[in-house]
Design goal:
By secondary structure, the chain is mainly alpha-helical. It is 77% helix and 0% strand.
Amino acid sequence: MELLYQYIEWFKKRVPEYLLSLEDSYKQLREQLYNVEQIRKAEVQDWKDLDIPLGLGKQLKKRVREWDKERERRVMEPIEERDGTANSLLQLATVAEFLES
């Protein structure tokens, strides 16, 4: 699952007041091939160019750090021991996903 989609889904749950304008904004971000790193660096003019409401754009940028911290915590949390092999593979996959971002 792509990181932009994951971030937008996470954002929807945290900031539901932007739900209506977020759908169009997500489409615009995808069409312009934006990723989470670009959101992290976006400036006022970028949001204007993308035709994304400035308040939403600022919130998207601001909350990336919170999302990063949450993802990092999940990577570091011990995964319940079920099957040692499956557990190790799941941890490796989670760490690899985090490092890709």
